[in-house]
Amino acid sequence: MRAGDIYYNNKIMNFYGDSFHVTAPGYSYAWTYEAVNPNRLVVSAPRVNAELDKTYALRQIKLGTFETTASCQLVLPAPTSKPWPTSCADVNGAAITGAIDDGAVGYLHLNGKRLGNLSAIEAIPNQAILGFHTSQVALLGASIAGEIIWNAGARDGINGNVHLNCRTNSLTDCFIGRFGWLGDRVSLEDQVANAAFVEMNMLSTQGYQKLYGNEDVAFPIRYAYPNCGPADKACVQSKGNADLSELDIDRMANYARWLGNPTRSEFQVALPDVIAGEQVFRQVKCDTCHVIRKIDIVPEDTMLSKDFRDRLATRVAQSANPFLSYLGTDLLMHDMGYLSQVANAAQAIRDQNGVVLPAFQNYMQKLRTPPLKGLRFNRFVTESHKNTKASGDPACDFLLHDGRACDAIEAAFLHDGPAIKQLGVIEGLNGLSSKQVLQLRAFLYSL
Fold it and tell me: How confident is the model at residue 5 (pLDDT cuts 50, 70, 90)?
C-alpha cells in the first residue's frame, strides 16, 4: 500500500499508514458498478463474443456513501511522520467520500479465491519465474513486461531460511512474491500469517518476537500488534482476535499444501474441442502470461517446505523427472488497465502505449496473474454448471480479482492493459468464430 492512497479490500481503509476498519460496528458502505470511464481504458475496442453474439459492457467500481461511527476516538498526537487524522471530522463519511471523489484516495476490491494450486505455486523454481520475466521483456519491453515483486520472507518458517532486509531486489537477500492478488507473500507460512492478520485480525507474536524482538517493524512477516493504524484508539487498545503460534501456522500451511492440486482428466484432454481450444489459447497469446508450458522442478530452487523438497529430490534421483504444466500463471504482476486503476484522475495518466507515466504510479495497482489450473472446479463450487439463469446466461464463477466475470470467456474479454494492447489479445478474441470460442471454453474448463 502506497502512502497517501487507500486500497480498498473489503476490510480496511488505510490513510498514510493509519487505518480504520470499515467493517467494524458502526461502519458501513455501499458500492455499485458504473460504465467505465473511457480515459481509464487502454484497449478501447468493443469486446464481441461470437459464440453468444454478445458485446461485453466494461464497468468500474463506484463506491457509495460511507457511514461512520459517532464514537470515534483517536490516539493523539498521532505517532506517525504524516499525522492523520487530526480530528474525527477527517474520518467521517463525508470526508472519506470527498477524498475518493477528488482522486486523493484509491480503492480496489479483492475477492477471496478457492484454495488450490498452493504447493504447485511454491514448486515453481525461482529461475523459471526469472525466465518468464526475461522472455516478456524481450517480447514486450521492460515497461510492459510483468514485474517481479521482491519481498522479505521465510522459507521453512521462522527457523528456516529467512530474509528480513530485502534490499538488492535479487535472490541474494530477497524472495520472489508468489501469493495473494498483490504478490506480497513468498511462502505459504508467510501467506497464512498475513491472511490471518489482515482478514481476521489474528496476531503471531511468537514469530514476531523471534524475528524482531521489541523492534517496531513497518512491514513484518509476523505480527505483534492488532491490524490497525495508530490513530484508531479502540483498535490500538485491543489484543486482536487470536494469537497464532508458529506450530499453528506450520500446520495450516501444510494443510493448504495438500489442497486441490488437480490433475487433468486424461479423457477430457483428449477431446477434439479441448485440443483445438489449446491452439486457440496460444493463437490469441493468452499463454504469454498464463504460462501453460512444461516447467522442470529443481527442488532446492523452490519455496516448498523441507519435507516436500526432500520428497522431490528423491524422485529426481530416481529419474522420475517431476515437472509442472498447465498451471496458467507466470507469477508476475501486471498492469490491467481499467481493472488496475484505483483512483480517479483528472488528467491522462498513460502514454500512447498505455503505460502509466511515472508521476501517476499511485493511481494504479498491478495484479498477480492467477493460475488457471482448477478452473473446472470453480463451476462445481458455484454450481454455475447448472446454468440456472432464466436469460440463458451462465451462472457466475466470480472470476477476475473482484469477481466481476461470470465465466472464463468473459474474463478473457474483460482483460485490458498495455500488454493486452501490444499483443492484440482483444482483437484476436473478437476475430474468433463461434466454434473457436466454444473450443477455447472447452480448453479453459479442462484445466
Answer: very low
Inter-residue contact 23 to 383 (CB < 8 Å): no
Beta bridge pairs of residue 323: 296
Task: Measure the CA–CA gap between 48 and 282, rounded to whole angstroms.
Answer: 19
Strand-pairing partners, residue 35, are 59
Sign for the pseudo-dihedral over CA of 417, 420, 421, 423? positive
Where would I find the H helices in 244-332?
Answer: 246-257, 266-269, 272-283, 306-317
Q: Of 266-270, 338-342, 356-360, 414-418, give the lowest mean pLDDT range.
A: 266-270
**In angstroms, rounded to a whole number, what is the distance separating the alpha carbons of residues 98 and 85?**
15
pLDDT in tens, 205-261: 999 999 999 998 888 999 998 877 666 777 778 888 899 999 999 999 999 988 867
Per residue, the 3-state secondary structure of 68-115, as one string, reads CCCCCCECCCCCCCCCCCCCHHHHCHHHHHHHHHCCCCCCCCCCCCCC
- Which one, of 292, 290, 312, lies nearest residue 302 by Cα? 312
Q: Are 377 and 369 contacting, i.e. CB atoms less than 8 angstroms apart?
A: no
Question: Which class for 185: exposed (0-12), middle (13-18), buried (19 or more C-beta within 10 A)?
Answer: buried
282-284-287 Cα angle (round to 5): 45
Amino acid at 298: V
Q: What is the pLDDT of residues 99-158, one digit of tens each?
A: 888 887 788 888 877 778 898 999 999 999 999 999 999 999 999 999 999 999 999 999
Q: What is the mean pLDDT of the chain?
A: 86
Residue 27's Cβ-side half-sphere holds a number of Cα atoms within 13 Å equal to: 15
Residue 25, Cβ neighbours under 10 Å: how many?
A: 8
- Tell me the three cell numbers of residue 424: 492484440
Of 7-11, 93-97, 262-266, the least confident: 7-11
Contacts of 2 (CB under 8 A, 6+ apart): 361, 362
Residues 345-393 have pLDDT tens digits of 888 899 999 999 999 998 999 999 999 998 887 765 555 555 444 555 5
* Integer angstrom CA distances of residue 364 from 50, 104, 149: 31, 13, 15
Residue found by looking up cell 481493472 in the block: 339
- Alpha-carbon distances of 28 from 20, 22, 33, 108, rounded to whole Å: 12, 6, 18, 17
pLDDT higher at 389 or 43: 43
Q: Which residues pair with 48 in a beta bridge?
A: 55
